[in-house]
Design goal:
InterPro entries: ATPase_NBD, ROK, WH-like_DNA-bd_sf, WH_DNA-bd_sf
Organism: Bifidobacterium tissieri
Protein name: NagC family transcriptional regulator
CATH topology of the largest domain: Nucleotidyltransferase, domain 5
Shape: globular
CATH superfamily of the largest domain: ATPase, nucleotide binding domain
Strand order of the largest sheet: 5-4-3-6-9
Radius of gyration: 22 Å
Family: Belongs to the ROK (NagC/XylR) family.
Order of helices and strands: HHHEEEEEHEEEHEHEEE
Pfam families: ROK
Number of domains: 2
Structural class: alpha+beta
Largest sheet: 5 strands, mixed
């Protein structure tokens, strides 16, 4: 495999502190400046300077409502009430959702589905999903299918008067290490493939690739039922039984994790043989 392109996929240039604050606004907004300061043990002045930079970049915006936290907050965190503060009341903060658009692609064994989403992982009004079937399951064939879908999503953004997509996220039933697909059973890939770099070269867009179960897990963690929870589990039932875990706010990753193929988990070594005839027992 050729030397890997390590070009980072990112929304904006900024310091680690800016990224942490932006991530919390995205996950927990609408949120108060004082709450952010307490969560990160930062002074009000420091948070105000970071927010000013993020607003200048168009990453976050004020809601126009009172500076209170109206969304979920980290499990167990209770913001302290402000007392004796003076000055003009400030507005709560949210991610500037439509300032950026992204393409999300789910790759299966013979087709792929894509959708245009905003920074809050929501489909803008007037946008629908696109599906492309492919018979060529090779990395180049899949790359071509993804490029076609990305172009359709770009046309959606233009038609809706939105910014063109700045990034592509790929979800695929595969084992992935450092954004490289090690193997993809549903596509019969048994050799490492840097699919992200291939798609990036064709589309010109930053691209990241995740195991599709991990992608769903991250969605629930950031935008769905898991917002604010320090730990939770997710189980999917399809071609096999897949499972994923979030612990301490992070997706659990380890070499032996399932690829969504957890259909045979040993319970009883002397149990009955698999009815599908694969020889698995227990």
């Amino acid at each position: 495999m050729a030397e890997r392109d390590t070009h980072p996929a990112q929304w904006f240039e900024g310091s680690p502190a800016m990224r942490r604050i932006a991530a919390d606004i995205l996950e927990y907004g609408p949120i108060a400046r004082t709450t952010l300061a307490q969560m990160h043990d930062l002074s009000a002045g420091t948070v105000s300077r970071i927010i000013a930079d993020l607003m200048h970049l168009g990453v976050v915006r004020e809601t126009g409502d009172a500076d209170t936290s109206g969304g979920h907050l980290p499990y167990g965190f209770q913001p302290r009430k402000r007392t004796g503060e003076r000055g003009r009341p400030q507005s709560a903060l949210m991610a500037n959702a439509n300032a950026r658009t992204f393409v999300g692609v789910k790759i299966r064994g013979g087709d792929a589905t894509a959708v245009l989403v905003n920074a809050q992982c929501r489909m803008p009004d007037g946008v629908s999903s696109h599906v492309v079937s492919f018979s060529d399951r090779s990395p180049s064939g899949v790359t071509s299918a993804v490029a076609s879908l990305a172009e359709q999503c770009r046309e959606d953004a233009i038609r809706c008067g939105l910014q063109e997509p700045v990034m592509i996220g790929l979800g695929i039933g595969a084992h992935i290490t450092d954004d490289v697909v090690d193997e993809a059973p549903y596509l019969s890939w048994i050799e490492p493939c840097d699919l992200s770099s291939m798609v990036r070269e064709v589309t010109g867009l930053d691209t990241v690739t995740n195991n599709d179960l991990d992608a769903l897990l991250m969605y629930e963690h950031w935008f769905g039922a898991g917002v604010g929870l320090p730990r939770f589990a997710l189980i999917t039932i399809g071609e096999g039984i897949g499972y994923g875990l979030v612990e301490d706010g992070r997706v659990v990753d380890h070499p032996d994790k399932t690829l969504g193929l957890g259909g045979h988990l040993l319970i009883d070594p002397d149990g009955p043989r698999c009815f599908r005839g694969n020889g698995h027992r227990g």
